[in-house]
Amino acid sequence: MISPRGGRVVQITLTSSSAFYIPTFLAPALNTPTRSKRYFSSTPKAPSKLGRVPVSIPPGVEVNLGAPRVKPDPTTYLQIARSTATVKGPLGTVELEIPEYVNADYDAEGKKVAFTIKNKNVKQQKAMWGTTWAYFKNAVTGVSEGHTAILRLVGVGFRATVENRKNKEEYEDQKFVCLKLGFTHPVELGVPKGVTASVPQPTRILLEGCNREEVMQFAAKIRWWRRPEPYKGKGIFVNDETIKLKQKKIK
């Protein structure tokens, strides 16, 4: 029974086919069944695909997990406790900070490190679960095998050399990557500590180091001077980087 604005009572008989066209707010008054709430996915929540896999420690690599402590962080005002994981190997030492809600269990006999989080329903903790695993995996690989980055200089007259600059050294025996990229002056970039630079060819630069973040950050710093452009395909390419060429605009 529905009472319109005029005051008359109108009786509507519904069938299975006509009930679909009744607005939702009239469904309770007409005693029609409402459709249940549907979710986008019915897959149950699963743990991180990477975080739940233990990290194997190769021979000759030592892992030391420190106790959590509060450290000043310039990116946030929150007092977040972090623990420092030190990974030492034949190629060097890498220190990694682990958040307080990520637990690292080191099995000395099995030579494995497993990561877990406190609450799997918190989005930030689930995101940092796999991220922390990846950082730790890169640290183990860096101190045992090392990380590399190959830069390709594509362009007429583009050249690179590794030289010494005694008046610009930040630390003892620092090397400098000197680039000729078509400017009126050569570009000189100091190699950061822990990274080794070599030039097997005039148009190739090889960067090596145990810390992947430092190696790729220095590669990005070199690439910034001549980023690949899409019309002639000139620039500095890192590893397997490619670029799709565009057609020239013809008026």
UniProtKB/TrEMBL annotation:
Gene3D superfamilies per record: Ribosomal protein L6, alpha-beta domain
GO BP terms: translation
PROSITE patterns on file: RIBOSOMAL_L6_1
Residue ranges of every copy of the Large ribosomal subunit protein uL6 alpha-beta domain listed in the record: 83-146, 175-236
GO molecular function terms noted in the UniProt entry: rRNA binding; structural constituent of ribosome
Keywords: Ribonucleoprotein, Ribosomal protein
Keyword Membrane among record annotations: no
GO CC term (a single one): mitochondrial large ribosomal subunit
Keyword Ligase found: no
Pfam annotation, one family: Ribosomal_L6
Family, per entry: Belongs to the universal ribosomal protein uL6 family.
Name of the protein in its database record: Large ribosomal subunit protein uL6 alpha-beta domain-containing protein
Lineage: Eukaryota, Fungi, Dikarya, Ascomycota, Pezizomycotina
